[in-house]
């Protein structure tokens, strides 16, 4: 059940689009993990940013919280921002790289 909820939330996070690149944060490789606990109602999203000091961090946090909050099981969203492992182009999905012209 928890794995299914985590997968559903990860799919929902594909609706969060990086406004500078026009690609969702999942396919950009910014989401490192989703841990939803339906018992406590807490969902922790572990993620990174492309660069430290990214001006979009508040925007992305708000959008993530909005998407995850649609799930009835979730009462609180926590963003766990990490810098290791560091983000790189290799973390992007094949589709995202193609869309951005990176081969």
Structure, explained:
The protein is an alpha+beta fold and 103 residues long. The protein contains 3 helices and 5 strands; from the N terminus they run αββββαβα. The chain has helices spanning 2-12, 57-68, 94-99, and strands spanning 17-18, 23-24, 31-37, 42-47, 76-81. It has a 3-stranded mixed β-sheet with strand order 3-4-5. β4, α2 (57-68) and β5 form a beta-alpha-beta unit. The longest helix is centred in the middle third of the chain and has 12 residues, at 57-68. The radius of gyration is 13 Å and the shape is globular.
In short:
The protein has helices at about 1-10, 55-70, 95-100; strands at about 15-20, 25, 30-35, 40-45, 75-80. The chain is α+β, with helices and mostly antiparallel strands.
- So what's the CATH class? Alpha Beta
Supply the CATH superfamily name. Answer: Fe-S cluster assembly (FSCA)
Low-confidence stretches: none
Largest sheet: 3 strands, mixed
- Give the count of helical stretches: 3
Total strands = 5
Structural class: alpha+beta
Shape assignment: globular
Named at the architecture level, the CATH assignment is: 2-Layer Sandwich
**What Rg do the Cα atoms give?**
13 Å
Protein name: MIP18 family-like domain-containing protein
Domain MIP18 family-like: 7-79
